[in-house]
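Appendix B. One record, verbatim.
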Amino acid sequence: AVHFEESGGDSVQPGGSLRLTCVTSGFWSMAWFRQAPGKEREGVAAIASDGVTTYAESVKGRFTISKDNANNTLYLQMNSLKPEDTAMYYCAGVYVPRALNPLSSDEYNFWGQGTQVTVSS
C-alpha cells in the first residue's frame, strides 16, 4: 500500500534551519512541493532514481534534497530560511526513473498530507 509519513515542520525565525522528513513505501522519483495560503502549489526540489537533483531558483544554495533508499526516506534540509518560505510542504512520488519536468506537480500521482513550515520573527 502507498504510504507517506511527513515530519519536521515547525515555526522558526528567519535565518534558521529545519529538516523535513518523508518516510514512504518507496518511489523511483520524488520531490518536495509547497503551497502558501492564496498561492499555487510550487515545486521546491526533486530527486530522480539516479540521484540527479533539481531545485527551484528561489531555494538554490539554501535547500538540499536527499534520500535514503534503504529506508525509503526523503529529506529536505532547509537553511537560511526566509519568511517567504512559509508554506505547507508536501512530498510527492512517482514510479518513473526521472520525471520529464521534475518540479511540475502534474508529474506526480502520489502525495503526502503535508507538514507546516512557518518562518517568522
